[in-house]
Amino acid sequence: MKKQLLMALVCAMLLAGCGSSDSSSDNGSTAATDSVTESVTDSAAESEAPPQEWDSKFVQITDYPSLKDAYAPFFPIGCALSDKVTSSYEYAELAKQQFNSMTAENSMKPENGMDASRGRNLPDKYVDHIPTKFNAAFKRPLEFAKENGIPVRGHTLLWHNQTPEGIFYVNYDKDTGELCDRELMLKRLENYIKDVMEWTNENYPGLIYAWDVVNEAIDDAGGIRKSLWYQTIGEDYIEKAFEYARKYAPEGTKLFYNDYNTYQQRKRSDIIKALKPVVEAGNIDGVGMQSHVGTYVTPSSFADTIKMFHDELGLEVQITELDVECGNGDDWEDKQAEYMGKLMKAVLDLKAEGVPITSFTIWGLTDDMSWKKDNKPLLFNSDLSRKKIFDAMIQAAEDAKNS
Ligand code: XIL
Asked: Of 56, 225, 379, 398, which is least surrounded by CB within 10 A?
């Protein structure tokens, strides 16, 4: 170990001498090596890295109003950030200027926290304890948030997507077709939630203000989704996930259920039904409305849904993944902006009535990096120029302040 440390130090000194600042590693090097390398490259970056220059392919953003300032009296404004944003000077500058909450778009999902690559025939200690990999990919958004003082929404602990399928099988082996029984799967779930909570709290204390504990558990056709979580544990897996999350979450961390199409009547009543026992147990703080919307979602049905979650469950509400489809026609940008203005007014009116809407997140930075890029659903163009929908969002906050 001593030898390794010495080697790392020598390498790091050599790197510093050469003026290189690119020594990050994705392959899970030891903590000791990481810290030596990081501290040396930090000082190298300070003394020798060239000043960051604005690439002329991006427009200047210095005169932009900021969403986080405009909405300061109401709620934090968040953005889903990918590595493309956190590792680029220009994107990062825009994100820092505009947002005071962030969600990792993919890096903190189960597929990144659970170490599926470890495969089958793991040592006994892993039978009921899914191996984890809190590696550079998982850490990158958290590092960015920490460096820039941006609070994080943790997304997500339990989901049927972006989760290694092997975890549901005995010996982590899907080919056997032998699903874990309830008892084993509950242990795996509890241990995973415990590990994530403990690791994030140890390494980034106080940074994560809310967790999406369970994501998308309601089936579009009604009732609870018959996912592998359901098949192995049974219908109370939602309650159990929240019970464990409450048990291990640091004091004050808000626990959320998150879903899409929440404004559809059947979806929202199924969500309310599923969450009642979780509320009774005192293990949930809020509902996350993803809000991948288009002009077909009326602002009034959107607002009714927020109100209903609050009235019927006594929970707070966060808008967690908003994007707005562009629609057809030459005037799509105007229509998108007009819609956004009305949606924000409906949300801000509720806020003025005292409904606890506690954060509002846009699902990405520029249209070209959206998961729905053909719909041009975000606030900025690829060159960072602001779209009309951005101006409409700012205007809605100004109007609410003046009303
Ligand atoms: C999406 C990401 O934006 C994509 O990059 C990824 O390929 C798939 O997942 N509901 C969620 C989000 O809860 O995690 C999803 O994010 C979008 C739908």
From this structure: 56
> pLDDT tens digits for 139-196?
999 999 999 999 999 999 999 999 999 999 999 999 889 999 999 999 999 999 999 9
HSE on the CB side for 175, CA within 13 Å? 3
The pLDDT assigned to 176 comes to: 87
- Give me ligand 1 centre to Cα 12, in Å: 37
Give the residue, by CA position, lying nearest to ligand 1 atom 9. 106
Proportion of the chain above pLDDT 90, given as a percent: 84
Counting ligand 1 atoms within 8 A of each CB, the residue from 225, 371, 375, 378 with the most, and so the one to mutate, is 371
Report the atom number in ligand 1 closest to the C-alpha of 260.
10
Task: Summarize the confidence of residues 377-396 as an average pLDDT.
Answer: 98
